[in-house]
Design a protein that fits this description.
11 helices, 10 strands, alpha/beta, 6-stranded mixed sheet, binds magnesium ion, 275 residues, ATP hydrolysis activity, binds adenosine-5'-diphosphate
């Protein structure tokens, strides 16, 4: 594949190069459990792939492997044409930023004593050059840039000076999304990022994510046990079971009676739970 030939030149990435690619990801916990077992994946630019499967199937472990925060037994990961598993130290950090994550429990990722603006701009504060470039491009100062980021997720700028404890779970999750998008990543991994919220707030977040995806063209790996949400957001569905991908299909085919027996089992289980 041509991605290899361009491995050292991320800027030469063509539109055909996937936003995220992984080959042969395997991860075994110390207790001997292989939570991810030789998984490969490719997400096109601007595509949203849904990763579904029952609790314990290895979805979060895979996400951590992709993000490079979990040591793998084997496997390679590319963002665009850059293999990030081949990089170390500062080079790794610089490239890895092109992929961001939104986790389930937003409150855990905020320092309770730091006003929202500090947490929101944390990724950009770590890269003063990018912060300066964004401010110059938009002709705004730091605070206005933060306000714009909040507006993008339909939050009011007056939240900037508040402490995280005074925001609702839904508001904090929106700030997490704004923070993940602040550095204009090519890939965002969302791991059960709405699971702890009320159903009505979840629905609004799904709409927001759908809009943002269309607006920004960012690729997404949307990890969830909520098949309804995955069908709403994702173009393509990947079904995971016991560390392996057992089925893949267009989202519109998920409910088809012709699917893999495990997928049908999962769909039946989901229907039973949601009535
Ligand atoms: N730190 C850990 N040590 C040992 N086993 C773990 C650890 N974290 C997760 N597991 C196990 O790995 C498997 C996959 O877990 P996880 O990736 O969290 O699945 P999912 O996100 O699909 O619910 C499960 O059997 C889980 O119990
Ligand atoms: Mg999980």
């Amino acid at each position: 594949m041509s991605a290899e030939t361009a491995a050292t030149a991320p800027e030469s990435t063509s539109a055909a190069t996937p936003a995220l690619r992984a080959e042969g990801i395997t991860m075994t916990y110390r207790n001997g459990l292989t939570a991810v077992d030789g998984v490969s994946l490719s997400i096109a630019r601007g595509e949203c792939a849904g990763l579904v499967g029952q609790s314990g199937s290895g979805k979060s472990t895979l996400a951590r492997c992709l993000l490079g925060v979990q040591r793998m037994a084997s496997g390679r990961v590319w963002i665009g044409s850059q293999e990030i598993t081949a990089l170390r130290g500062r080079n790794h950090r610089d490239q890895r930023r092109r992929m961001q994550v939104v986790l389930q429990d937003a409150s855990g990722s905020f320092n309770s004593r730091i006003p929202i603006i500090g947490s929101l701009l944390e990724p950009l504060d770590c890269q003063p050059a990018t912060l300066r470039r964004l401010m110059a491009e938009r002709g705004v100062g730091r605070r206005e840039l933060a306000s714009d980021l909040l507006r993008q997720v339909h939050l009011e700028a007056d939240l900037l000076d508040r402490l995280p404890g005074s925001l609702s779970g839904g508001q904090l999750q929106r700030v997490s999304i704004a923070r993940a998008l602040s550095d204009q990543p090519e890939v965002v991994i969302l791991d059960e990022s709405t699971a702890s919220l009320d159903v009505s707030i979840q629905a609004r977040l799904f709409n927001l994510l759908k809009d943002l995806r269309e607006e920004l063209g960012v690729a997404m790996l949307f990890i969830t046990h909520d098949l309804g949400a995955a069908r709403f957001l994702a173009d393509r569905m990947i079904v995971m079971r016991a560390g392996r991908f057992v089925d893949e299909c267009a989202s519109t085919d998920l409910l088809s009676p012709d699917r893999d027996p495990y997928t049908r089992e999962l769909v039946d289980l989901f229907r039973t739970h949601t009535g």
